[in-house]
Fold this protein.
Amino acid sequence: VGPKKEVAECKEKFASSVDPTVSQTFMLDRVFNPEGKSLTPMRGFKYSSWSPLGCDANGRCLLAALTMDNRLTIHANLNRLQWVQLVDLTELYGERLFEASYKLCKADTPCGELGDFPEFQRRHSMQTPVRMEWSGICTTQQVKHNNECRDVGSVLLAVLFENGNIAVWQFQLPFLGKESITSCNTIESGISSPSVLSWWEYEHNNRKMSGLIVGSAYGPVKIIPVNLKAVKGYFTLRQPVVLWQEMDQLPVHSIKCIPLYHPYQKCSCSLVVAARGPYVFWCLLLISKAGLNVHNSHVTGLHSLPIVSMTADKQNGTVYTCSSDGKVRQLIPIFTDVALKFEHQLIKLSEVFGSVRTHGIAVSPCGAYLAVITTEGMANGLHPVSKNYQVQFVTLKTFEEAAAQLLESSVQNLFRQVDLTDLVRWKILRDKHIPQFLQEALDKKIETCGSTYFWRFKLFLLRILYQSMQKAPSEVTWRPSHEDAKILISDSPGMGSTEDDQEEGTSKQASKQSLGDTGKGVDIDDTAEDSLHQSNDTGGREPMVEKLLEIQAQIEAVEMHLTREHMKRVLGEVYLHTWITENTSIPTRGVCDFLMSDDGYDDRTARVLIGHILKKMNKQTFPEHCSLCKEILPFTDRKQAVCSNGHIWLRCFLTYQSCQSLVYRRCLLHDSIARHPTPEDPEWIKRLLQGPCTFCDSPVF
């Protein structure tokens, strides 16, 4: 808010002021006094917000975190289980205001002296964040120097401040830090005592519109236009739209915006829901030839206490609310000729978890689970002495619904539907077989569709089935062992069945967790051998041995099919981006020979492509060489390369190059390894190295 020395002098002056309206206001405001002296320290977080998938360098989410001392920072999970702060937006915004003399525009009247208490308050309130929310990813085309067009992704972060101003930051993707900030614009909302913020994103006739929904602690809710000239293809409102204007002293606690399709009007619409006290305020926004139609109302009779948390399943529009007494309401929107109505039903958590108090809820991305934060409730009319916070998981879908959604998914990415795959995984682990209807439906999809997504889904099912038939480990697998034992990396069919990204878990039974963790960090081949030896000793379990070997053969067959499909893609990139007799770092000849080595593999597309590539290579082989002994590295295995002197190098599963360095990347489920891009790599190889795992769709770290 000013030079450090001047700020310290002003704080001392206000604290010792004779006027109690100044001294008491100053001493009790934790924005002015984050250290608090005798008060409790300001530790922890006020609010956090996740960006959409695909914003960081690994294609995952960024995390915007607002601390109790009003510092807004952005973090990224760059390495596995390691979070790094990328930028401090509070510091950057403060520098911008300081350079502009704490004026939003040049036409503003000159600001007063810092020694005036109202000016001291104004400078703090204009940069004290209340809420922040991410927009969807905006894709624009950028023209390069050689007149080529490339798609450039960007994302917006809106930050709501105490005085009602909104700062809209634009970041170029992937977000790497301060250098990725494109612009920052400040909008005046005109809302007094703002409490909550949400993006309004609406698509009408292939035109995307956006705005910001702001709620007040006094009750009003309105949409603010966002004019961003830098973001092409996006439109906004001409003027603010008031959704609720009554100053009824019902604070707006949470706002959700859900895109839906109106079955009667035959067009897309936008449903805005807001928690106001014990009520849910809803507003249906619909663009027609007459303009923007706004229908709004309240849903009453849901809770006897104020709503403490609200979440929404954006796939079907279902809204969930909870109050602190352990009651969760499910609201299902049903369209009518004009607007809509809600059917709601009560979910009593006390029937599942006993007497509990609820503090927050969230629905998983595909609507499979509802996560609930709980503490112990009253026992015999008495409150508990201490609070133990727990995250409980409640299933919202059956196994059959999850399987059907995975089969008909438009996303076609297992990693982005990990909550649905967790339900399927649990069913197979428990029943020790893949249901017949799922197997038949998946085989039919594989026959009719050419997508490798269904092959990856089949591989996932086979690996879980393989895992379910092994004996459970005698000791806890997640606990690190202190033995310095060497482990041989071998070709194991079960690698990747470790569900590390599914640590969100469920609270169905403790036995589920022990079953679900089976195989984490354990060499699958070793456990398979143990189970085989055990079955041979007993003598009566020969069918189990045969079943394991059969599943293992199926896993290897599916993995080989996925490998061949990716090899064809890599060869296609090589053909498109190379000249005659050009040496690329990719072992092109080795990949071609590996594809054609199996007499049973007859793919006309692959044969034609290989013929064109060999003609372009003009009898050149360009083999890889071992960096230790300079011997040729033959391409005989897709997972590793072994020279004549016995030096073993792991192969990159994205480009099939040998990783001849000590540092490499690994996919989230430890399925495969990939090398790091180097500065001398051409753009098309760097693009290949950005891809996810070809077996499980997981990002690579």
Notes: Residues 542-577 form the longest helix (36 residues).
